[in-house]
């Protein structure tokens, strides 16, 4: 597991991976990057085919990274998703149109920072407004299993519709 679109990954390597994903069309591949500008550039310059089984996403940990959403929206993809994980601060007002899925989760591990329920609710509300599937993964914390994944008295396991255009 790595960021396929980090600066050191050659475009030719990414193109070969695209070929493998096209050939393995019975799998769904989720590619997550903190570098959506690189993703957009490589997909456009290499003219990589939009594959229905390849979901492309970016991480948004707080408002300081929310601009990644606008870049991701430009990337041709069957499914575009945001991983709000670890959510370490509020994201503010965001637009999720043309974003199909939002995954929200807290940081985990011995030095995990707390996630505020208001931040989660802001995202959930904006997902509802813009028609984006909402998936609550976990609260996180030093013992993420003990913290659980129930939010507002239930689990949130929404998934995007397959292959929207």
How does the SSE layout of this entry go?
Elements: H1 11-23, E1 29-33, H2 36-45, E2 54-59, H3 67-74, E3 79-84, E4 101-105, H4 117-130, E5 133-138, H5 144-147
Overview of the structural elements:
With 165 residues, the protein is α/β, with parallel strands linked by helices. It has one domain (11-147): Rossmann fold (3-Layer(aba) Sandwich), CATH 3.40.50. The chain has helices at 11-23, 36-45, 67-74, 117-130, 144-147, and strands at 29-33, 54-59, 79-84, 101-105, 133-138. β2, α3 and β3 (79-84) form a beta-alpha-beta unit. α2 runs parallel beside α3 (67-74). The longest helix is centred in the C-terminal third of the chain and has 14 residues, at 117-130. The chain is globular, with a radius of gyration of 16 Å. The model has no long low-confidence stretch (mean pLDDT 94).
Give short descriptive properties of this protein.
165 residues; alpha/beta; globular; Rossmann fold; 5 helices; single chain
């Amino acid at each position: 597991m790595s960021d396929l679109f980090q600066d050191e990954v050659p475009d030719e390597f990414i193109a070969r991976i695209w070929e493998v994903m096209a050939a393995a069309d019975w799998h769904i591949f989720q590619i997550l990057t903190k570098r959506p500008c690189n993703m957009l550039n490589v997909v456009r310059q290499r003219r990589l085919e939009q594959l229905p089984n390849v979901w492309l996403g970016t991480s948004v940990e707080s408002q300081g990274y929310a601009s990644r959403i606008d870049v991701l929206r430009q990337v041709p993809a069957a499914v575009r998703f945001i991983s709000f994980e670890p959510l370490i601060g509020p994201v503010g007002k965001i637009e999720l149109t043309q974003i199909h899925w939002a995954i929200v989760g807290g940081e985990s591990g011995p030095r995990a920072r707390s996630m505020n329920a208001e931040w989660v609710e802001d995202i959930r509300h904006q997902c509802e407004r813009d028609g984006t599937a909402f998936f609550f993964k976990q609260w996180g914390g030093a013992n993420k299993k003990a913290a659980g994944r129930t939010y507002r008295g239930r689990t949130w396991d929404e998934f995007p519709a397959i292959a929207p255009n």
